[in-house]
Amino acid sequence: MDGAPPKPEPAVAAGDPGRGAAGAPPAPPSPNEQIKARSRFLRGTLSEELDRAALGGLSEEASQLVKFHGMYVQDDRDLRPERAKRKLDRAVSFMARLRIPAGVLTARQFLALDRIAAERANGTLRLTTRQTIQFHGIIKSNVRAALRAIDAVLLDTIAACGDVNRNVMAAANPFRSRAHADAAEAAARLSAHFLPRTGAWREIFIGDQRVRGGEPESEPIYGATYLPRKFKVAIAVPPANDVDVYAQDLGFVAIVQDGAIAGYDVLAGGGMGMTHGEPDTYPRVGDVLGYCPADRLIEVAEAVLTAQRDFGDRTNRKRARLKYTIDGRGLDWFKAEIDRRMRSPFEPPRPFAFSTHDDRLGWAPGADGLHHLTLYVENGRIADRDDGRLKAALAAIAGLEGFGESGRFVITPNQNLVIARASEAERVRIDAILAEHRVPREFSRLRQGAMACVGLPTCGLALAESERYLPGLVTRIDAVLARYGLQDQAITIRLTGCPNGCARPYLAEIALVGRGPGRYNLLLGGAADGSRLNRLYRENLADAEILAALEPVIAGYAQARRDGERFGDYVRRAGIVPASGAVSA
Ligand code: SRM
Ligand code: SF4
User: Fold this and answer.
1) Is residue 108 within 8 Å of 405, Cβ to Cβ?
2) Does a structural domain hold residue 187?
3) Which of 429, 444, 459 finishes a domain?
4) The domain that contains 550 carries what CATH number?
5) What is the C-alpha to C-alpha distance for residues 149 and 395, in angstroms, rounded to an integer?
6) Annotated catalytic, 232?
7) Which residue's CA lies nearest to atom 3 of ligand 2?
8) pTM listed for this prediction
9) Largest CB tally within 10 Å, which of 220, 321, 560, 581?
10) Do residues 503 and 555 both lie within one domain?
């Protein structure tokens, strides 16, 4: 579609974030604000608590702070009932998320991460929807060793979680064209610019000593209390919207001239998270603010991020994202505030057009004369399984003589992996390795556009199964599609174990959002290019009910679709879901 997408109508009357109701005293800052303020730039008691072997996890306060260093304290929820019965503590471990701007790794780095997964975590690597990698199941005594091994290959986990700018995404893959290389370089620059300046990560986890007598520490961009909430940035290169630019707090759409990025249309205020039954939380697509030349990237990003730093809601974390700041104060106010913070205002937006937001799988030639393989990784989980040893195959590829030095591994925003920069001979070898390890390469069209969040057993917020449930459900929906001759139809399906939206479900043509154990809301009608929110179709469905609800819609699509009409467009045109209305109840 062209330019700005249709806006969803605000689900709540605009409020004034951070202030009490008329006449009421202002609400106090949330407890997290106080934790940040007294943390001495994200140190708190983390170092001492990591040394305390008797406790498997961390105190509540240290658990909040460790997020800024890219880690979460979790427990295996599969084991909870049995351990509770046996009066045992929860099986606590750490999840660690890397910072990998634009998702680009060298083959050597990938190989090192593969070893860390085996030696320090649960033996798998999890590609994420923000182009990075998570390790799960790191026990406390392994945390420092894992982070030192990450540091040894010049990677880190700084700011991968927490109230800061998160991993910066860019259209995959930088070796595809000059514009893609520009986008990845811009992502790396943004990531470096907004990296917290505190030395806490190196001090606590790597063991570097604080330099005494030097300049007092400060956070020139963030200040001592960082941001009100997470902040997400991505750069899209049309016609692909693989980064889901409309879901970002701050999105840049590349305007390409003579093959290179000349500038960007800038979007702000996208976000996915919501809570069931709380209508003042909702997903939202970003608004187009205007155009800026490429050399103003950092200036623009800093204006938007600091406006959110200064005006975001620090009293209620559920309403602390930029989307609520914009809806609360109004888009005109927000635009004026951004203009005020920049050297000169935006130019009018330039036209752009997206066609997809999923990945094109298989080998493709790059501008560099080399070959790039986009490999489907189901829900991003790299593991060795009975039906294919993907983890071992990727390690063998990363270790190939020659390719180990020149090859690159690029994580896509759809949880897939590009094996990049292969010569003709390496391409043949890579295909052979994948075949030797029985890595599946053929997938139904629906599965190719399917994405699930992590969910159980590690995610503490999951209400329903996610990553472990979607593959089987796709098989069952595929059977329905085949009955109506639609097996080759591209349809995006996304599933999350709760409404937080980690797989960006509200932009899919079909979405399932966890309500409770084995129960999901069914949403329909997202656009094929990720530019439009879907709408709630049915609530609280069990597995058989999902299929029963979908079948008549699929049958109608088979019969009444127009030439080339996508499923998401059909369900809206046919009035199966309204063009406006609730994303969830
Ligand atoms: Fe997410 C929280 C996993 C992308 C919105 N997300 C979580 C936590 C950390 C659960 C928690 O807070 O205890 C999950 C850890 C699960 C686990 O066991 O690993 C988690 N989120 C993920 C990942 C791994 C999903 C995946 O399958 O790939 C993604 C990691 C991204 C990364 O590498 O940085 C992931 N999360 C997203 C996205 C998509 C995106 O960023 O493009 C979103 C929606 C976009 C947005 O932010 O609006 C997203 N995650 C959330 C939210 C809701 C935030 C909100 O504004 O309401 C939470 C809950 C929270 O922050 O309180 C959350
Ligand atoms: Fe966990 Fe919910 Fe995110 Fe899924 S969407 S990973 S269940 S927080």
Assistant:
1) yes
2) no
3) 444
4) 3.30.413.10
5) 17
6) yes
7) 502
8) 0.95
9) 321
10) yes
Of the listed ranges 152-161, 212-221, 466-475, the least confidently predicted one is 212-221
Note whether 460 and 73 are within 8 A (CB).
no
Beta-strand relationship, 381-382 and 371-375: unpaired
pLDDT band for position 15 (cuts 50, 70, 90): very low
pLDDT for position 360:
94
For CA atoms 406, 234, 160, 187, give the dihedral sign. Answer: positive
**Where a domain ends, among 401, 428, 444?**
444
Q: How far is the CA of 8 from the centre of ligand 1 (A)?
A: 22
Ligand 1 center from residue 128 Cα (angstroms): 9
Checking if the pLDDT of 428 tops 90, the result is yes
Q: Is the CB of 572 under 6 A from ligand 1?
A: no
Domain that holds residue 517: 446-573
- φ, ψ of residue 170 to 5 degrees: the values are -145, 150
Position 582 pLDDT exceeds 60? no
pLDDT at res. 2? 37
Query: Is 549 part of a structural domain of the chain?
Result: yes
414 and 458 share a domain?
Answer: no
Instruction: Give the angle subtended at the CA of 57 by the CAs of 54 and 226, to the nearest 5°.
Output: 135
Ligand 2 pocket: which of 318, 498, 506 to mutate (most atoms within 8 A of CB): 498
User: In terms of domains, do 451 and 526 share one?
Assistant: yes
- Ligand 2 atom closest to Cα of 514? 7
